[in-house]
Design a protein that fits this description.
Structural class: mainly beta
Oligomer: single chain
Distance between the termini: 48 Å
Strand order of the largest sheet: 6-7-9-10
Helix content: under 10%
Shape: globular
Radius of gyration: 16 Å
């Protein structure tokens, strides 16, 4: 039997000799989809800002769901597409509803999509 307890952004899994404890806000695994993902339609003041003189861009915005805040940025590649997913966690006063991430800008033949809805944000 496997027990999973999720409370205040902390996961505790016990069962079959397995004991796993993690803080959802401060951990992420590449190429994994977060349990609850922020979609672009729920982001206010969204910006994609290219950096001058460096191959980087900044994405920033604000979660428009008052009971939720930003967890971690999850990234994965699918062919020539970089997929960005931001996990959502319950708001608790320690985390914020705003986000700002600096990422490497893709080459000319690559694109960036946001969320499970895969809305293209670059180019």
């Amino acid at each position: 039997m496997l027990y999973i307890l999720i409370a205040a952004g902390v996961v505790l899994v016990i069962g079959a000799g397995l004991y796993f404890f993690t803080d959802l806000v401060n951990s992420a695994v590449a190429n994994e989809v977060p349990p609850r993902t922020l979609e672009l339609k729920n982001v206010g003041h969204f910006e994609v800002v290219p950096h001058t003189g460096t191959p980087k861009i900044t994405i920033r915005g604000l979660v428009m769901e008052s009971a939720l805040s930003v967890g971690k940025l999850y990234t994965s590649r699918e062919g020539n597409t970089l997929v960005l997913r931001i996990s959502l966690v319950p708001a608790n006063g320690k985390n914020s509803g705003s986000f700002e991430y600096v990422i490497d800008s893709p080459s000319d033949n690559e694109r960036i999509v946001f969320g499970n809805d895969r809305v293209q944000i670059w180019p």
